[in-house]
Amino acid sequence: MCLSLPTVSSACSTSSTASSTTTPSKDNMGHINSEDEDILVAKNSMPEDDPNGNTLHDAREIRWGPQHAGAKLLASQYTKEKRIQEIISIILCIILMVYNFYFICRYFDVRNWYLIIPSALLGILTADLASGIVHWGADTWGSVDMPFIGRNFLRPFREH
Fold first, then answer.
1. CB of 82 within 8 A of CB of 159?
2. Which of 10, 29, 59, 120 lies 20 to 30 Å (CA to CA) from residue 91?
3. Where are the domains of the chain?
4. Disordered: where is this region (predicted)?
């Protein structure tokens, strides 16, 4: 990763050797070596509240992604029933979108533009706000061990 100031050239160091000292190595432009930067970020980051012990790691190891213990647990809980639920949801969504599009086309009247434009903008803002609240809630509250909700909704949501 290249950290550059607006007044500094965008040339980055290509050195991949790690510094064994406590101060990160810099090139002649003042950029920190990318590997040293990763070590500094991991060292200075606040530890995760993780019962799986994933915070006890070497700074060069990956703490997220498919090798993360939590991701492995979530992936192991993906069932055939969950896949059926996803397929039914996709089919139902397509049917409702076609149904909605039909009625939009049938009742569309250009003379109502002064209602359509503000309604569309407010609809977009409302959907974005609602989506943000749902994402925050699903990421923050509950556990994948909760009956029904955890396995069917929180687990796949957090896995994606």
1. no
2. 120
3. 79-108, 110-140
4. 1-32
